[in-house]
Amino acid sequence: MATVYDDPAFFAAYAGMGRSRGGLASAGEWHLLAPLFPEMEGCDVLDLGCGYGWHCRYAADHGARSVLGVDLSEAMIAAAKEKNPHPAITYRVAAIEGYPFPEEAYDLVVSNLALHYVEDLDEVYRGVHRALREGGVFLFNIEHPTYTAGVREEWITDAAGRALYWPVDDYYYPGERVTDFLGFPVKKYHHTLTQILMGLIEAGFVLEAVVEGAPDPAWLDLPGMRDEMRRPMMLLVRARKGAAR
User: Phi/psi of residue 60, each to 5°?
Assistant: First the structure.
């Protein structure tokens, strides 16, 4: 299964992004995602779409017994091994949809900005539920449906380039969307809010937190950041296998 992340030109552009260079502290969602992590001391963790391995390293540094990071991109896995090595971490090239999800193998499954590349969320949800031990946590961040239903995921602007509004179209038609990311056509999948949340419930999860990704107030004076208050870009969800705590 090919991925644009293995295109050398795209990967070079991605590597130049602030979040790629600066790690978790440079990720716009980190102020919201970090508080949702459970205690990880002695836990077994799976990171789906691990990218550079920042979250793998975070889990290992917080006492995880083992961490497996999987990513479809060979370039990403090579970078993760270089940037975020740790004795507790194993990295493996694998598609999220193709991962076997061994039964009751993990205490935490995390996925950050990867599930919008997955066509069949329900299949992944069932696999994650199977792979978690009772009481285990599924924590993920996915592009918000308002964002993925955006036309080309771009603002409508005036002649001066100022953002006028964010267009949303074909919201109730889930499926493939092709957008421009870093100057390259990138294929993603739009899922409605009902699909994302009710799919978890139908797979047997209990929802514990749903957070729409507003920017960090400390970042609002950065160029273009106040426009990020006009529509949500990300959706963060924490769900548990078994009864809520």
Answer: -65, -40
Is pTM beyond 0.90 here? yes
Continuous segment of H or E residues that includes residue 126: helix 121-131
8, 10, 238: which is closest to 140 by C-alpha? 238
**pLDDT for residue 2:** 74
Considering only CA atoms, which of 94, 69, 95, 97 is closest in space to residue 82? 69
CA 148 to chain centre: 13
Q: Helix, strand or coil for residue 120?
A: coil
Tokens standing for residue 199: 């799919």
pLDDT in tens, 187-241: 999 999 999 999 999 999 999 999 999 999 999 999 889 999 999 999 999 999 9
- Which phi and psi (to 5°) does residue 92 adopt? -145, 135
